[in-house]
Design a protein that fits this description.
DNA-binding, elongated, homodimer, mainly alpha
Chain lengths: 171, 171
DNA sequence: GACTGATGTTAGATATGCAAAACAATATGA
DNA sequence: TCATATTGTTTTGCATATCTAACATCAGTC
């Protein structure tokens, strides 16, 4: 029995913002949600109503807003998607903070959970594998800066690779 | 002077579909666009009008549809985004065809041109670099299948790495 | 030249999402 | 406890995007 909650993008954004505010200030308020999402306070009310109907938040007019258990569960999934995507853009593709944040924000609604897992796996693998890891990523970063693929440095790079391999064996 | 055309997602979809149909059948027709986008024929007309206003397509009621030079330029950018993203999902993250297609479809509107370039660079680099390349990707694929990070196979993996390096030197 | 089927357009309905502004509740503090 | 500022809500309106169903046009055929 799969919950086919099918939230719209904007409802997902609301949930994400609410989780964030909860963690920051215990409870969320309409104004803070509006500011975080860059919309007018008047636009928030409708979204909150939808979320109440779907039993994802506890909320009554003029009161604070908190997530229900189910709401929190979903909000955390969405937030994780965001974090993973941003991580990838930031640490692997080397986007700057702002670009990574913006792109992650827009991409997070386009990917399902399974895909996110795969991406997490990929990023982790890229960092952990002796054949890649930090040095490989650094080489890619250098390439993005200089535009030069310095294959002549490969020998040193492979040495690093073996070192990482040895280290892993030790442990 | 940057053209701030700011197309909506659906208009981007129209352009992409039209480019595709043009390449396939010389000209696009409303019905084909509708079928390709999975919407009703009646819904297409409005989108076409917007695109005419923005000078991105040549179109008059009851006639065929073709892209203007500017429209073709933009459509190609969008299509490239799609292709690059799908390539990444397909070849690196090893999504199956259908999942990759769907995800690429939804992600292509979330990424700007510069980000796409960076992703292209990354994928190319990943394939070309002796330290990664096909063998590394295969190892990652194996990992996604088995869930096991077989670091014990590293020695062989590093050998492959050096071979690729030698090959590159020869050339 | 008129019929017919395929294709295209229009109009009206529905839904979403957001903004602006008028209005309501709450909280603060003197 | 009253006045005021802050915060929240409602209403209205706009823009986008879609569907359905009625209507228009086109191209081919008899």
């Amino acid at each position: 029995m799969k919950k086919n909650t099918e939230l719209s993008e904007s409802l997902e954004d609301y949930l994400e913002a609410i989780l964030d505010l909860e963690q920051d200030k215990k409870v969320a308020r309409a104004k803070d949600i509006a500011r975080k999402l860059g919309i007018q306070p008047g636009s928030v009310t409708g979204g909150l109503k939808s979320l109440v109907e779907k039993n994802l938040i506890n909320y009554e007019p003029y009161s604070y807003i908190t997530l229900t258990a189910e709401g929190a569960r979903i909000a955390k999934l969405i937030t994780r998607r965001h974090r993973v995507l941003k991580d990838f853009l930031l640490k692997v593709l080397q986007f700057d903070e702002k670009t990574a944040e913006t792109a992650a924000c827009r991409m997070e609604h386009a990917v399902d959970e399974a895909s996110v897992e795969r991406l997490v796996d990929f990023v982790e693998y890229l960092f952990e594998c002796p054949r890649t890891g930090g040095a490989w990523i650094q080489a890619f970063v250098d390439y993005t800066r200089t535009g030069k693929k310095s294959w002549e440095k490969c020998a040193a790079c492979i040495d690093d690779c073996m070192e990482r391999h040895q280290e892993r064996k030790m442990h």
